[in-house]
Amino acid sequence: MTDNRYQHHFTVSWDQLHRDVRSLCHQLVERDFKGIVAITRGGLIPAALIARELDIRLIDTVCIKSYDEQAQGKLDVMKGVDHDGDGWLLVDDLVDTGKTARAVREMLPKAHFVTVYAKPEGRPLVDQYLTEVAQDCWIEFPWDLGHAYVEPLVNQIRSPKS
Ligand SMILES: O=P(O)(O)OC[C@H]1O[C@H](OP(=O)(O)OP(=O)(O)O)[C@H](O)[C@@H]1O
Ligand SMILES: O=c1[nH]c(=O)c2nc[nH]c2[nH]1
Ligand SMILES: [Mg+2]
């Protein structure tokens, strides 16, 4: 389902995501963390890459769901953690409206919260992010995409199929 709040798309490849996460790690490497709390599911892949770069083996999750494709629904928290986040790195793939971030911040007020991508509404809720993306832009992550055939341009223009 699409939402007309989103007028543009920003497609992130696996390579781009890997490069972006590594760049974010350059800003984190001097700090010591007890472990990582990944916000599922989108935070799991950046968390795994960050764990590798910073040599962190202790990884926990906050399991939370807000969107069904582009439709934002009620926040569903399926699993929390039993600490306030002190000394922990909290990781998500992105912050958009900030609804997810606000809820997780309440659970882990002392964690250092990072995302790879941040939109303006949610940006103030995170401590660090790598790339800002416009509010009306839907980020397409590589795990949601596949390769597909593309009709040659001349066919699209001269004899479009429906
Ligand atoms: O700032 P917000 O407007 O709250 O949106 C950001 C959240 O939405 C997405 O998660 P989603 O709920 O789609 O679940 P997923 O991580 O399992 O894909 C994304 O991974 C963030 O966690
Ligand atoms: O894949 C996604 N891209 C987005 O831009 C977004 N915003 C909230 N949730 C999202 N998921
Ligand atoms: Mg998520």
UniProtKB/TrEMBL annotation:
GO terms for cellular component: cytosol; plasma membrane. Mg(2+) binds at D93. It is a peripheral membrane protein. Its cofactor is Mg(2+). Its EC number is 2.4.2.22. The keyword NAD does not apply. SUPFAM superfamilies: PRTase-like. It comes from the Bacteria. Keywords: Cell membrane, Glycosyltransferase, Magnesium, Membrane, Metal-binding, Purine salvage, Transferase. Purine salvage pathway enzyme that catalyzes the transfer of the ribosyl-5-phosphate group from 5-phospho-alpha-D-ribose 1-diphosphate (PRPP) to the N9 position of the 6-oxopurines guanine and xanthine to form the corresponding ribonucleotides GMP (guanosine 5'-monophosphate) and XMP (xanthosine 5'-monophosphate), with the release of PPi. To a lesser extent, also acts on hypoxanthine. InterPro entries: PRTase-like, PRTase_dom, Xanthine_Guanine_PRibTrfase. The lineage of its organism: Bacteria, Pseudomonadati, Pseudomonadota, Gammaproteobacteria, Oceanospirillales. Guanine binds at D96, I139. Homotetramer. Its main location: membrane. 5-phospho-alpha-D-ribose 1-diphosphate binds at R41, G42, D92, D93, L94, V95, D96, T97, G98, K99, T100. This is Xanthine-guanine phosphoribosyltransferase. Pfam families: Pribosyltran. It is an enzyme of class 2 (transferase). GMP binds at D96, T97, G98, K99, T100, W138, I139. Belongs to the purine/pyrimidine phosphoribosyltransferase family. XGPT subfamily. Residues 13-149 form the Phosphoribosyltransferase domain. One of its GO terms (molecular function) is magnesium ion binding. GO terms for biological process: GMP salvage; IMP salvage; purine ribonucleoside salvage; XMP salvage. It catalyses: IMP + diphosphate = hypoxanthine + 5-phospho-alpha-D-ribose 1-diphosphate; XMP + diphosphate = xanthine + 5-phospho-alpha-D-ribose 1-diphosphate; GMP + diphosphate = guanine + 5-phospho-alpha-D-ribose 1-diphosphate. Pathway: Purine metabolism; XMP biosynthesis via salvage pathway; XMP from xanthine: step 1/1; Purine metabolism; GMP biosynthesis via salvage pathway; GMP from guanine: step 1/1.
